[in-house]
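look at this stuff:

>
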Amino acid sequence: MPPFDICERTFDFAVRIVNLCSTLCEHPDPSRRLGDQLLRAGTSIGGNVEEGRAGQSRADFISKNAIALKEAREAAYWLRLISATVLPNSDEVRDLHEEVQHLKRILGAIVARAVENT
């Protein structure tokens, strides 16, 4: 069961992304380049959530979490592409794609709720 706390959940997701990308970097070019893109987007989600938690204002909180949502959307794209090309039968890629779909829904709800309460 994934952690309830969004900061812990995005941190755990980032750890899994780093591990996957480490594997991708051992392969020749397209895999390495896709891994680099996924690494940036997948680890940025948690970083932005953490920054939002320490936001200086409600607008800053909304902005950082909206950026985290955008990064989650990008990570979902790279995972989908990796699944379609480099690792088509990978359970880990499939699980990560499922998790990022959950993160997108959670972050979307966080942003929508924060906007409603302004």
Observations:
- The two ends are 32 Å apart (CA to CA).
- Residues 58-85 form the longest helix (28 residues).
- The chain has one domain: 6-116.
